[in-house]
């Protein structure tokens, strides 16, 4: 395996080097809505004895000076459900929904680890797929990612969580609040949680995507989450450059040998497209998380729909779900009408 190049630091060293540190005792319930670059001072003790991880990825990114590009898109957090779903009522059904017959395939498959949603997929998601959970603010995209990784960690697999939105400690605290032992997994070296500034990542993306497969292979991860790809997309004003950079990064993730999940903000115009309309075409599976708001405004509901999964049959129904203290629970036997 090729060693990491000298001009790029280590993705995971900042996370792995701090594995003895305790996360903040009080989780922050509110997500920061600040697009400015976070100032970080890398820990000098974060160096690893493994020659593959000699360079500190996080430290290398701190030296990059970049002006934040102007973002002309509407940054409103509001997301509305699609038209045609007025006066929706939540009722529990008694019959199993009709699914397509399971594909006759020899592809290795995995469960996502989300109750109800896994039963909507015949046989599971093919391993090493690139997935995206797409939705508006508050629909549970980050929770989806945490739950997706926790399922693998509970089976003694290794995983990586890369966050462009939150601090490393906040991610760990959010997971532990839901009963996921992320603090223990980090301490045991089973999980790497890395926080990266989106501006810095955009400026080093070519180097990052070149080294990512080797770093993930060396760590031994089976699953990876990037939360969120929308912040990375925002760093490119030119549409062609944005499309090309995200395409190349998606290809790098597919070459990393992991089942990877991206989270993405939905378009302000429709829940069925991402903010920039790119990632849904680059990924193998698309999960749409959305609000359903009836005309009487008595109760805003959450609904999930599987837009596509390559090489897997799945339910095409829209199903209600809740975000509880333990994560996302999809009511597979319930209907919205």
How would you describe this structure to a colleague?
By secondary structure, this protein is α/β, with parallel strands linked by helices. The chain contains ten helices and 13 strands. The strands form three sheets. The protein has a nine-stranded mixed sheet, sandwiched between helices. Helix 7 packs parallel to helix 9 (about 240-255). The protein is globular, with a radius of gyration of 20 Å. Residues about 1-10 and about 25-105 have low confidence and may be disordered.
Mind sketching the topology for me?
Layout: H1 13-17, H2 57-62, E1 90-92, E2 109-110, E3 125-126, E4 130-135, H3 141-153, E5 158-163, H4 168-177, H5 182-187, E6 191-195, H6 198-203, H7 205-219, E7 221-227, H8 229-233, H9 239-254, E8 259-265, H10 279-282, E9 285-292, E10 301-309, E11 319-324, E12 327-330, E13 334-336
Parallel strand pairs: 4-8, 4-9, 5-6, 5-7, 7-8
Antiparallel strand pairs: 1-13, 2-3, 9-10, 10-11, 11-12
Helix pairs in contact: 7-9
Describe this structure in a few short sentences.
With 337 residues, the protein is α/β, with parallel strands linked by helices. It contains 10 helices and 13 strands.
């Amino acid at each position: 395996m090729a060693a990491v190049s000298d001009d790029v630091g280590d993705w995971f060293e900042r996370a792995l080097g701090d594995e003895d540190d305790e996360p903040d005792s009080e989780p922050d319930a509110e997500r920061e809505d600040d697009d400015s670059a976070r100032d970080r001072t890398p820990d000098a003790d974060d160096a690893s004895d493994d020659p593959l991880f000699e360079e500190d990825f996080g430290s290398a990114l701190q030296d990059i000076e970049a002006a934040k590009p102007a973002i002309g898109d509407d940054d409103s957090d509001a997301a509305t459900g699609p038209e045609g779903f007025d006066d929706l009522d939540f009722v529990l059904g008694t019959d199993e929904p009709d699914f397509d017959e399971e594909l006759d395939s020899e592809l290795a498959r995995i469960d996502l680890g989300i109750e109800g949603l896994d039963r909507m997929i015949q046989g599971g998601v093919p391993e090493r797929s690139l997935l995206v959970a797409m939705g508006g603010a508050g629909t549970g995209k980050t929770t989806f990612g945490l739950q997706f990784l926790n399922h693998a960690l509970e089976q003694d697999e290794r995983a990586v969580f890369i966050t462009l939105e939150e601090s490393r400690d906040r991610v760990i605290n959010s997971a532990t609040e839901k009963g996921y032992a992320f603090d223990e997994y980090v301490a045991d070296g089973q999980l790497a949680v890395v926080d990266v500034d989106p501006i810095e990542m955009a400026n080093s993306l070519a180097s990052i995507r070149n080294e990512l497969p080797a770093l993930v292979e060396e760590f031994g991860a089976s699953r990876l989450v990037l939360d969120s790809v929308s912040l990375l997309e925002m760093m490119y004003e030119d549409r062609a450059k944005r499309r090309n950079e995200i395409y190349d990064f998606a290809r790098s993730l597919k070459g990393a040998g992991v089942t990877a999940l991206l989270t993405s903000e939905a378009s302000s115009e429709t829940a069925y497209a991402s903010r920039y309309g790119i990632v849904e075409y680059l990924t193998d599976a698309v999960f749409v998380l959305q609000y359903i708001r009836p005309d009487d405004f008595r109760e805003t509901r959450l609904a999930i729909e599987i837009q596509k999964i390559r090489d897997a049959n799945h339910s095409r129904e829209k199903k209600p779900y809740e975000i509880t203290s333990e994560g996302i629970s999809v009511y597979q036997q319930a209907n919205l009408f």
